Amino acid sequence: MTPIIQISQLSHCFGKQQVLHDLSLEIPSGSLFGFLGPNGSGKTTTIRLLLGLLKSQNNAIRIFGQDIRSCRESILRRTGALIESPALYLHLSAHDNLEIIRSARQSDKRQLAEVLEIVGLSGQARQKTGEYSLGMRQRLGIAMAMIGNPELLILDEPTNGLDPAGIRQIRELLLALCQHHGKTVFVSSHLLDEIEKTVSHLAILHDGRLLFQGSLAQLHEQQPLQLAIETDNNLHAAEILRNANFRIPEITQDRLFVAVAEKHQIDRINRLLLEEGLCVYELNRKQRTLEEVFFSMTADPSRINL
Ligand SMILES: Nc1ncnc2c1ncn2[C@@H]1O[C@H](COP(=O)(O)OP(=O)(O)OP(=O)(O)O)[C@@H](O)[C@H]1O
């Protein structure tokens, strides 16, 4: 896939504070790309640089193959954005808020009904946005970003402050935008569960440095394999495996977890336990959640070999 956004060695300083360090990223066209990082890691700064709201200090950002510094206008015509919360006229309806943007962008009037339908607000289109819930406002913000039918949507923390139902609606909306409406969606978030359920690709940022970029599958492949084992005597099983030089990171009441480097060790573990007369009830690969991976990376980024 051709990258729709290419960032190469992007650095940024606010005064003497360097907040981005040589950030290089490629966002594949058609992807739902999650941009993850703890508070203050530089996500919003990156997004503001992508949109030309901050001037990049080196020649590092290309979107649709064009340089943001020299082609900002033509890039923004093909890009919709939502940074945190949408700026709404609260005394106006959703329809009228959208109409202001539509007329400024001189896009087709039929788009209003279309975007309202996509974000599930057709029924409340004439209601004042001051009466909208936070989730409805965020969905309207995404509808606003879609006016002009942009190929690329850049959304900064669109689920911030939402309840679980609101988060789920945004998640379904982002998936639909990508899968059914052909958009590339670049979304920042610190909600790891959400990212794991939604994105096809992701990048992890920490203190302005990139720790990982790639697909979710690649991220999981890089993680050490662990086996969850249940036997009729887990303590004895742990002792047998330790004696055979296996590392046991964790024992819970009903399982022990064993670190394995290669697939064939699983067979060896099984044989060792059976030879010692243990009953093996379960032998299962344990996949670390994104949350576990994220915290292990951000707790000690130097350990990650990317
Ligand atoms: N306008 C500014 N002037 C000075 N420093 C800033 C400015 N904007 C951001 N920073 C600093 O840059 C760093 C990165 O901030 P940024 O908002 O990009 O992080 P973030 O990952 O988006 O965090 P959050 O999840 O809290 O929004 C922080 O240390 C922040 O204090």
Automatic annotation (TrEMBL):
<dbReference type="GO" id="GO:0005524">
    <property type="term" value="F:ATP binding"/>
</dbReference>
<dbReference type="InterPro" id="IPR027417">
    <property type="entry name" value="P-loop_NTPase"/>
</dbReference>
<dbReference type="GO" id="GO:0016887">
    <property type="term" value="F:ATP hydrolysis activity"/>
</dbReference>
<dbReference type="Pfam" id="PF00005">
    <property type="entry name" value="ABC_tran"/>
</dbReference>
<feature type="domain" description="ABC transporter">
    <location>
        <begin position="5"/>
        <end position="232"/>
    </location>
</feature>
<protein>
    <submittedName>
        <fullName>ABC-2 type transport system ATP-binding protein</fullName>
    </submittedName>
</protein>
<dbReference type="InterPro" id="IPR017871">
    <property type="entry name" value="ABC_transporter-like_CS"/>
</dbReference>
<keyword id="KW-0547">Nucleotide-binding</keyword>
<keyword id="KW-0813">Transport</keyword>
<dbReference type="InterPro" id="IPR003593">
    <property type="entry name" value="AAA+_ATPase"/>
</dbReference>
<comment type="similarity">
    <text>Belongs to the ABC transporter superfamily.</text>
</comment>
<keyword id="KW-0067">ATP-binding</keyword>
<dbReference type="InterPro" id="IPR003439">
    <property type="entry name" value="ABC_transporter-like_ATP-bd"/>
</dbReference>
